[in-house]
Specification:
The protein is an alpha/beta fold and 324 residues long. The protein has one domain (3-322): Alpha-Beta Barrel (TIM Barrel), CATH 3.20.20.100. Helix content is 41%, strand content 13%. The strands form two sheets. An eight-stranded parallel beta sheet has the order 9-8-7-6-5-4-3-10. Strands 1-2 form a two-stranded antiparallel sheet. Helix 4 (137-149) links the parallel strand 6 and strand 7 (153-159). Helix 2 (64-74) packs across helix 3 (104-118), helix 9 (248-264) crosses helix 10 (268-277) and helix 9 runs antiparallel to helix 12. The two termini are 34 Å apart.
């Protein structure tokens, strides 16, 4: 596993970031521990979670993924300072009017709850999960700045921000001398590119923002699981994938990934991950895993290095003018 700087910072993160959204949902605590142990064994030092993960499962009050990570850390498998923990704030954590959002009130309450669940006294990367139109940016950034100054948070980042909002946030931080966003989590993969590449990518490169794409496998479509000749599972995810990606353009991408994968003795998913990591703006790609096997199958995408010709061939198949 290689390590990259998170944007302009000196923080080094593994090329693969373990996404833990499934912990406490489709992966029970024991399985989650096994996945985290294997991730560390493979050289992964970067875990991503959020306070809201698992909130709506079986009436769960929220924070189950953070709680599992905290229980795992307490076992002492790895020293706390050897792992980079990223979590998020924004989503609903209760039924009260201040139990969500990016107000100072909610951020200060949410960070203490996350620290308790994670069993730690600091968060390496604290991210706003998505925008809050009802709270001034100055209020959000000021609260985050106070957390950095207090040592409870070391870096701050954002997720799902459009380019104009990220630019405005950076400007406010610069003018008011506040901590600024050092990372962005965008939705980005081989078949979903324009949203990031049009405006966010040049902004991140220019401003030294580390990019941590989520859904690099397009919800599973870029694993090769969905083919022309295979029956479609009767699930909401499968129906979403069918509607969005299962067309001639999508199947042409799978065919090319399959061809390149054979040349590298790799899987389709590994080549799809390699394509994301070949982008110079990307610091780390987030992959989720419900099992150790799923983790190892996908994470080895970091070991695949595409030739210029292979990268170009894949990119040309998914040019913006053909993206729906």
């Amino acid at each position: 596993m290689e390590y990259r700087r998170l944007g302009r910072t000196g923080l080094k993160v593994s090329e693969i970031c373990l996404g833990t959204m499934q912990f406490g949902w489709t992966a029970d605590p024991e399985t989650s521990f096994q996945v985290m142990n294997k991730a560390v064994e493979m050289g992964c030092n970067f875990f991503d979670t959020a306070d809201i993960y698992s909130r709506w499962v079986d009436g769960n009050e929220g924070g189950e993924s953070e709680r599992i990570i905290g229980d795992w850390l307490a076992q002492g498998y790895i020293r706390r300072d050897e792992i980079i923990i990223a979590t998020k704030v924004r989503g609903p954590m209760g039924d009260g009017p201040n139990d969500q959002g990016l107000s100072r009130q909610h951020i200060m309450s949410a960070v203490e709850a996350s620290l308790r669940r994670l069993r730690t006294d600091y968060i390496d990367l604290y991210q706003v999960h998505y925008p809050d139109d009802e709270t001034p940016l100055e209020e959000t950034l000021s609260a985050l700045n106070d957390l950095v100054r207090a040592g409870k948070v070391r870096y701050i980042g954002c997720s799902n921000y459009p380019a104009w909002l990220l630019t405005k946030s950076l400007w406010i931080s610069d003018v008011r001398q506040l901590a600024r966003f050092d990372s962005l989590q965008p939705h980005y993969n081989l078949v979903h590119r324009a949203e990031f590449e049009r405006e966010l990518q040049p902004l991140c490169l220019d401003q030294g923002i580390g990019v941590i794409p989520y859904s690099p496998l397009a919800g599973g479509f870029l694993t090769g699981k969905y083919r022309r000749e295979r029956p479609l599972p009767d699930t909401p995810r499968a129906r979403h994938i069918q509607e969005r990606y299962m067309n001639e353009r999508g199947f042409a991408v799978i065919d090319k990934l399959d061809e390149i994968a054979r040349n590298h003795n790799a899987t389709i998913a590994q080549v799809a991950i390699a394509w994301v990591l070949a982008n110079p703006a990307v610091s780390s790609a987030i992959i989720g895993a419900n099992s150790v096997q799923q983790l190892t199958d996908t994470a080895y995408g970091a070991e695949i290095h595409l030739s210029d010709e292979e990268y170009t061939a894949l990119s040309e198949l998914t040019a913006w003018d053909t993206e729906k």
